[in-house]
């Protein structure tokens, strides 16, 4: 299948394939839109089963970054990069430097950053061969965006709970967190501090047990999390967590999490609406990390300004939820419409 015929192709500006025989690099960079500025998006390193699977992921994720940056009011477009490799076994400094050269060949139209399978340390290696890297830290402080992503999701969840459950207080709120990696763990800790009662799961059982003991949370096997008797379901692992089958099993009345591309198919949003479950558009909720990375690139960085910007995610969602309620629609297409108004002036 050609890129132009791919079902996830959405008039992307550029889709670039790169390889390096010496290091084993096989990569794809997708630039979705640059109307608001250069395309920023993380580098995902994952052992995709096929090139088509990798292309599907990078096309979807880059589109999501355009919408994310627009609704976060950032002067950035949307892009993404993937390397087809096992990050535990295949990743090497040589491969990362080759990736940096590929990024550099785009002349600043794409800015890379860490994502699943890559780290801040990896970004520093990539920065040896290109200047177009974000998330390297500021003023000697780590550039890890995960605490900022988690805080944005926390702000989003508070908005969703107000609109979906008609409550402001999180004390006693029952939340199921699916995935307790960097972002999921930070989110769980914030929710615990706010008085929420947690049910946690992860494929990494050791990490799950440690966090469960730290927070006094219930832990379950991955497949059981969607059946948990909770108020909020927070998908914080890989994408496509919300399939029609999962939606039919959910007992939560609100969905708000950190994972990208949570809807396995667009029509799942209407299925959630039909069941009376308030869905929080993922690219709005999880924008905290990209907001932090964008501020790192400015000359007037102040942490308090960054946090204020991130807390604006809640206000953006207040607008989306209110508009969705007025129009009797899912928040997902409402968010898409609002984003397009910001990066497609004629829309």
Could you characterize what this model shows?
- With 347 residues, the chain is of the alpha/beta class.
- It folds into 2 domains: 14-126, 3-Layer(aba) Sandwich (Rossmann fold); 146-343, Rossmann fold.
- Helices cover 42% and strands 16% of the residues.
- The protein is built from 12 helices and 11 strands.
- A 6-stranded parallel sheet has the order 8-7-6-9-10-11, with helices on both faces. The chain has a 5-stranded mixed sheet with strand order 1-2-4-3-5, with helices on both faces.
- α4 (146-165) crosses α5 (182-193) and α4 packs across α10 (288-296).
- The radius of gyration is 19 Å and the shape is globular.
- The model has no long low-confidence stretch (mean pLDDT 95).
- NAD(+) binds at residues 179-184.
- The active site is at 80 (proton donor/acceptor).
- One of its GO terms (biological process) is amino acid metabolic process.
- This is Leucine dehydrogenase.
- InterPro entries: Aminoacid_DH-like_N_sf, Glu/Leu/Phe/Val/Trp_DH, Glu/Leu/Phe/Val/Trp_DH_C, Glu/Leu/Phe/Val/Trp_DH_dimer, Glu/Leu/Phe/Val_DH_AS, Glu/Phe/Leu/Val/Trp_DH_bac/arc, NAD(P)-bd_dom_sf.
